[in-house]
Amino acid sequence: QTVPEELQNGGGFGYVVAFRPLGTVSWMQTVVASPDAARYVFRNESLPPFSPYEVKVGVYNNKGEGSFSPVTVVYSAEEEPTRAPTTVLARSLSASDVEVSWAPPWENQHKGRIQGYEVRCWRHDEKEENAKRIRTVGNQTSTKVSNLRGNALYHLAVRAYNTAGTGPSSAAVNVTTKKPRESCQTSPCQVFVQICLAQAFCLIFFMRFCPVLYRWNRQSSTSVIETNKTSVELSLPFDEDYIIEIKPFSDGGDGSSSEQIRIPKISNAYARGSGSSTSSACTLSALSTIMISLTARSSL
Fold first, then answer.
1. How far is CA 296 from CA 39, 193, 214, 237, in A?
2. Which uninterrupted H or E stretch holds 54?
3. CA-to-CA distance for 68 and 75, rounded, in angstroms?
4. What domains appear along the chain, each with residue ranges and CATH number?
5. Beta-carbon neighbour count of residue 223 at 10 Å?
6. What are phi and psi of 270, to 5 degrees?
7. What is the pLDDT of residue 109?
8. If we measure between CA atoms, which residue out of 125, 182, 134, 119 comes closest to residue 152?
9. How many Å apart are CA 142 and CA 115, to the nearest integer?
10. Interatomic CA distance for residues 24 and 27, integer angstroms
11. Quick count: other Cβ atoms within 10 Å of Cβ 102?
12. Which residues make Cβ contacts (< 8 Å) with residue 270, sequence separation at least 6?
């Protein structure tokens, strides 16, 4: 930083720049005569990239020299990284997010430092030059890539960067995002409820990989059954009120629940006189509008 005019204390004010390669004894000096100068460039074609130098700056005027600043270490210009990151791994977190991790390049960077990493991500049917780019800072060796398309194949590659530019790219790795969240509300199906004498009822539905949630009023607790079949039998006492819900799930997460199917309690004595089995059926266009007719059930 330049010295304010009120502190120059005389005419003929200027700066003395002293510098030497780190670890050497002798100082090289140059004079910068302008009091407004704020930089000095030392040119040497044989200077290796990213070479450390000790530097101090003094002042002078017509009356003589002043004191020097504290010594600081500066570096000559660096070159971009010369090696690619290694051990690149990617895993799908959801239908829209993946996580990618890597290890730093094998060799030490003698010609420059690594300031961070650039992750490139592109879909299989896209061109690599149009890849999404995410930059990390410092020693971070993992990051999340978001806003991706569900159930799609992506390629990811990583390269290091610094002030000189980016280094070579790692080999690309592949990852497929998870399937998007499913929805019961858009899946047509048929639902049947069958009451059985063995103190059980069967809920039959035409959708695969759905969990069946049920709870009863007295204990206000919830149980879950997951099945990939098209029917499930629940062995439950008849003297309780039940609420049944159907909800699909996949790698992308749970879908929307159906509307509640309410099963009122039926006395054991009444059930014993109902015959072998009776069923009431309701064919629906979507699970979101499931209704079980209580008038039909009263025929038991």
1. 92, 11, 22, 20
2. strand 52-61
3. 20
4. 5-75 (2.60.40.10), 86-177 (2.60.40.10), 191-266+288-294 (2.60.40.10)
5. 11
6. -65, -35
7. 55
8. 125
9. 14
10. 8
11. 26
12. 300
Beta-sheet pairing, 200-205 with 231-235: antiparallel
* Lowest model confidence (mean pLDDT) among 22-26, 248-252, 267-271: 267-271
Measured distance CA(174)–CA(90) in Å, rounded: 7
Q: Choose among 248, 98, 260, 97: nearest CA to 181.
A: 248
Q: Which helix (H) or strand (E) holds 194?
A: strand 189-196
Distance CA(299)–CA(210), nearest Å, equals 30
Q: How far apart are CA 257 and CA 259, in angstroms?
A: 6
Query: Model confidence at 224, in pLDDT bands (50, 70, 90)?
Result: confident
Rounded distance between C-alpha atoms, residue 182 and residue 206, angstroms: 15
pLDDT in tens, 136-167: 999 999 999 999 999 999 999 999 999 889 99
CA atoms of 286 and 200, how far apart (whole Å): 25
